[in-house]
Amino acid sequence: MTAAPLAQCLGVTRRFGHFTAVSDVNLQVGPGEIVGLLGANGAGKTTLIKMLLGLLGTSEGEVALFGEPPSRQTRSRIGYVPQGLGLYDDLSPAENMQFSAAVFEHASPGAGDQHGLPESLRPYATDLVGSLPLGVQRRVAFAQALSHQPDLLILDEPTSGVDPLGRARLWETIAETADAGAGVLVTTHYMEEAGECGRLVIMADGAVVAQGTAGQIIGSAQVVVVAAESWSTAFARLEAAGLQVALAGRGLRVPDADPAAVRRALGDLPATVRQVPATLEERFFQLASQGAAGKAVA
Amino acid sequence: MTGQGDRRAVSDTSQAPGHDRPAARAGLTGQAASSAGSATGGEAGTSSSRFGASELFVLYGKTVALSDVSLSAPAGQVTAVVGGDGAGKTTLLRCLAGSLAPDSGTVWRPVKERVGYLPASSGIYPDLTVAENLDFRAKGYGMTRQAARERAADYLDRAGLTAAAGRLAGQLSGGMRQKLAVIAAMLHQPELLVLDEPTTGVDPVSRSGLWWLIARAAADGCAVVLATSYLDDAERCAGVLVLDAGLPLASGTPDEIVAAMPGTLREVAVRPDGEAAARAWRRGGHWRVWEPGFGGAQQPEAIEAEQIEPDLQDAVTVAALGQLLSAGRA
To answer: Which among A12, A68, B75, B100 could bridge B49 via Cys, Cβ 3.0 to 4.6 Å?
Structure first.
């Protein structure tokens, strides 16, 4: 990365009493970058985002936004779409836009003319948000977050409940925002979304356990794929042998396993056993489990 | 969904209990046998092992919630209903579970006691502990205390919830609560398990536990139907039905849906101009352009780029695009 980071965490730790929610995290989001933040519940993602938004201080380390500590001024350069969308249900989309324009003290583009609502949302401008379909509400939340042309966009599970084509269209909006020079930080639980991020940061137990492109994070991790005439019998036998088995269509996947051990566990059952590269989700699960195990030992 | 594959899956399921940790499940054989009997004699009608729906229509006032939707849910198999909010997933699942009567069409399901249902609102009591929720549900199912305890202990262990058994359900994380809700829905080893968005809001670690429970139910011979808005989930299923605004967009195995995609797909670095923009979408930093490849005279100009093999996500996106574009022309 050559450009100065828009958001930067340097050795950031946050404790609540004896509990360390975020531990020595280093993270950067540069202009034009889409960074995906992945982690199990309780991994520290929400605490980290609250610190970036300036809602929570650090116990140790430094958070910098646009090169300065988080403040009301830096907040006004951030567009944020929380998981619950953060819209007022009993206001219309136009009123919601007007309200955020007032908060951020900017004249919304096209004020007086639907307050900058994109064309596709105009038909809903005066309906109450609470009465609109969730997909439309989500687009209103995006429009609101983008209305003050933020330099940094923070999105929490941005396309939850959206159909695949709608998801592709929302990601086009996200990518256009990045192409225009903004930095984007996205949290997601779905690998379908993670695949749209240029760089991924994986957190477990408050710490960053991996960082890079999906390919770099998967690395050489492999899983064993089992195809048997009777998948349920194969499932039962692998289970009985204490192996972690996942269902994939009519086949099974066994992460972190030795093909010979899988063969042995299947016994006389006719089945093909082969090794294939792990998926991002499988690698993520491995990292998240190791994170938890590492902490338990420490 | 091919008939041949399904028949194999069915014969699969009748073997499953025998291989299934006999010691832990010794008390259950009688129940499993009687349940097979109840399905043949119950509402299921034509088939004892295949549930589903045929040509369903559901209207809410003037809104068409489901229009000519059919779904096959074979035993021992997981079937996904995929779509966004408002696609009709919950309506279809309510019809399957028997909590909503369609305006027309047929539903095949076992008798009520042999259905497990996780509604969109999880059906868990926040003021009861995890263990109390399961005790309560087991009583409702008419299970013996011992069978309920043994099975609950097994499921809780595999879902990583044993340590949380004494906690109030209202204090669980979203992922733990969903796992509890799925355990509660499958505790009585139903023949048909209907799960409305079990993975929504669930992190990947909890999701792995959830999927173990789902696989376990199917391995025990249950027909599982689940709703999701993510193809991550659909890819794990043997059968997939894609819904959009109450209409079926695509159905089959994930491979069949991919194979049935009309036309061709190309990948380009930048968004195409003009008419092709409507047939393009961004994926993984590049642009995919769909060429319908049929329709004779209206053949669009081909984009010069490498043709690529579609996956399930591409095929479902194309199905939605195709419907959108044909509606636009109509």
So the answer is: B75
